[in-house]
Amino acid sequence: MLIIANSLSIHIKNALEQAFPEAASKAHESGSTLDPQLVPASKPEFGDFQVNGALQLAKPLKTSPRSIALAIIEQLQKNKEFLSLCKSPEIAGPGFINLTLKEECLQAEISKQLEDERLGVQSLKSSSTHKERSTVVIDFSSPNIAKEMHVGHLRSTIIGDSIARVLEFRGHKVLRLNHVGDWGTQFGMLIAHLKTVAPEALITADAVELGDLVKFYRQAKQRFDEDIIFQQTSREEVIKLQNGNSKSLKAWKLICDQSRKEFEQIYNRLDIHLEERGESFYNPYLKKVIDDLKDSNLLIVDDGAKCVFLEDITGKDGEALPMIVQKQDGGFNYATTDLAAIRYRFSAIPNGDGAGRVIYVTDAGQANHFAGVFQIAKRAKWIPNEGCLEHVPFGLVQGENGKKLKTRSGETVRLRDLLDEAVDRAETDLRLRLKQEGRIESEAFIKHVANTVGIAAVKYADLSQNRITNYQFSFNKMLALQGNTAPYLLYALVRIAGIARKGGNLQTTIASLKFNEPQEWSLIRELLKFDKVIDEVEEELLPNRLCTYLFELSQIFNRFYDQVPVLKAVEPSRSSRLALCRLTADTLKLGMNLLGIPTLERM
Ligand code: ARG
């Protein structure tokens, strides 16, 4: 796995990176080509950064890397800006250059960060061109009507929301789209089946519950697989619906409403907001997709079905794989809808979304589907020059046994039940802890804390994993107060809020901060990494990077707080340390907010 370590504030890193080719070219004529390869130091005793670039110059310059490093350092000693940032550089090993930032520099940086409500993270709004800020569509969550949301949708919902939050915070215009599965063959089956078993569901609201619908859906599917006549009726129902038959549309709408209510409840509990724009939205655009593909000479009729043969994507037999866009019976499918959606999303407003970037958050199992659809969209020239399409895949949620997550009776776990259980367990843990600590709290407090911790734990457990890998769902692990968990982060925040309750004014501002303990400097160094971390999450769309950072920050804070007196310290140390506590709390709160994780003052 590639691990990109964090580094200190972006602009310091940039300034240092610039100083090297300059110094190298003064030392050696061809040195201006030097790529400093500045990386964070591997151990604190090596300082803040290590520069590896001198090694590369050894061959072309035919001298030892050590003497090259020495000559570069000599030049750096004459660079005023460099000297204002770094202590005297040191050579290590065959010719690495170790850099340690000056305390004055760290102090100046942390003072700036203390005053910046964005905590050092630049906003694109003020700086960049229109193009860089064009709309980003994030297609996430996207459950299917008449089926219950399952854990896969939970992952998509949580990961998609956190990516959206990070991009929004950076100043991008984000369109959060819920590409709900609300169209297609399943409705034909369902309507045909309901006609015989529960006709009232097709004409009256609330006649059946989602649970029943799910059951009916399963029955319908079984009938469809076994009964040729039922298959025919189902197909006829789809055609009726797709042709806009008013009775069919009404039935369809009732079924959708019922599912939607259930989805809404989940979204509310998770505090997630997104715009529903289901597959049905693209129905009017499907025919145009086929026409466009035909005009671009991409369409081939194969065995009665219209398809596009993919380039460089082959099946087991080594032959080019076709992607069907219109079935023999004239019906369209999942892929056609996705093609119409891409075309719409990249089209200029008002005939489309005017997007510059479209991101899909789904399970890794759909990677081939998206590779195919993206390729066709490119070949059909629906993507503007700078336009970018990305599939953000994630792995499976497994049970603690490493197998697919199932209930005891072997069914897929309902999301609602999963969240309920997390909250229930959080409540049990809390009541036990209160008892042990001899604390008495109101029922309202207990319910609120249990709910917050339960939801936070589920979200964090998901986000803190590298999304690409499968992960094992464990209530015990995610609710533990120790380890890389939501309760551990929440607890760090609660400790800081406790300092304020004990009389420490976290909002004090002092003219000159004063730091002298190593624990203070490590906390400062960690706090200064925040902007870089957000940058990386934006770049790689990996929220787990932010989780790791927040976890490390909490650990470093806890060490600082356990080892260095804050409230009992004398001035100016007391106020300086309180300032670090406040910045830690602000960073944790903002970071958790960008992950969509709720926070607490007491727990
Ligand atoms: N409804 C699909 C599913 O449950 C996910 C849709 C993802 N988005 C898309 N544009 N295909 O698997």
Topology:
Layout: H1 10-27, E1 38-40, E2 49-51, H2 54-61, H3 65-76, H4 80-85, E3 90-92, E4 96-99, H5 103-115, H6 124-127, E5 135-139, H7 151-169, E6 174-178, H8 185-197, H9 210-226, H10 228-242, H11 246-270, E7 275-276, H12 286-295, E8 300-302, E9 305-314, E10 320-326, H13 334-346, E11 355-363, H14 367-379, E12 388-394, E13 397-398, H15 415-437, H16 443-463, E14 471-472, H17 475-479, H18 486-501, H19 518-527, H20 530-540, H21 543-563, H22 573-595
Parallel strand pairs: 5-6, 5-11, 6-7, 11-12, 13-14
Antiparallel strand pairs: 1-2, 2-4, 3-4, 8-9, 9-10
Bound molecules: arginine.
Arginine (ARG) binds at residues 139, 142-144, 179, 181, 338, 341, 360, 362.
Question: Can you give me a brief rundown of this structure?
Answer:
The protein contains 22 helices and 14 strands.
Question: How would you characterize the overall build of this protein?
Answer:
The chain is of the alpha/beta class and 603 residues long. The chain has 5 domains: 10-101, Arginyl tRNA synthetase N-terminal domain (Gyrase A, domain 2, 2-Layer Sandwich); 185-272, no CATH class; 282-394, HUPs (Rossmann fold), CATH 3.40.50; 395-479, no CATH class; 485-603, Isoleucyl-tRNA Synthetase, Domain 1 (Orthogonal Bundle). Helix content is 52%, strand content 11%. The chain has helices spanning 10-27, 54-61, 65-76, 80-85, 103-115, 124-127, 151-169, 185-197, 210-226, 228-242, 246-270, 286-295, 334-346, 367-379, 415-437, 443-463, 475-479, 486-501, 518-527, 530-540, 543-563, 573-595; strands at 38-40, 49-51, 90-92, 96-99, 135-139, 174-178, 275-276, 300-302, 305-314, 320-326, 355-363, 388-394, 397-398, 471-472. The strands form 4 sheets. A 5-stranded parallel sheet has the order 7-6-5-11-12. A 4-stranded antiparallel sheet has the order 1-2-4-3, with helices on one face. Helix 15 packs across helix 16. The radius of gyration is 29 Å and the shape is globular. The chain starts with 9 loop residues before the first helix and ends in an 8-residue tail after the last helix. Residues 139, 142-144, 179, 181, 338, 341, 360, 362 line the site of arginine.
